[in-house]
Amino acid sequence: MPYTYDDQNIFAKILRGEIPNDTVMETEHSLAFNDIQPQAPVHVLVIPKGAFVNYDHFVADASDAEIVDFSRTVQAVIEQLEIAPGADGLGYRLIANSGEAGIQEVPHLHFHILGGRVLGRMLP
Ligand code: 5GP
């Protein structure tokens, strides 16, 4: 399926340096930054630098290097923020809203990493 990428979306502007962001981590192919409207003490967005609308688009068209970099960046942020699950009751939630039914607001792939408190139950 063809994917149409709108290069005027807000994360594309962040990647081009046209609007500022609060960077948590940057790698060759990925950028992690704090969400502007955090829903938890930790609310970081991780995006690939490539022009991908959503996860489906990313897996279909990204290089192996981009996919590995993105996955490792998500994990490195979790480690850096010390929210990885452990005996001390920590943990996090990883979300990628995708498409209209998924209520995706910004049409550039992003994973939300939420943590830093006990998160409410999301699914019945
Ligand atoms: P979505 O609903 O697409 O999964 O989530 C988009 C997220 O991007 C929201 O949590 C929203 O707060 C965040 N966001 C929107 N605009 C900006 C911005 O300009 N800067 C940052 N850091 N986050 C933004």
UniProtKB/TrEMBL annotation:
InterPro entries tied to this protein: Histidine_triad_CS, Histidine_triad_HIT, HIT-like
PROSITE patterns reported in the protein's UniProt record: HIT_1, HIT_2
All copies of domain HIT, residue ranges: 10-124
One Pfam entry name: HIT
Histidine triad motif (motif): residue ranges: 108-112
Top-level taxon of origin: Bacteria
Name of the protein this chain belongs to: HIT domain-containing protein
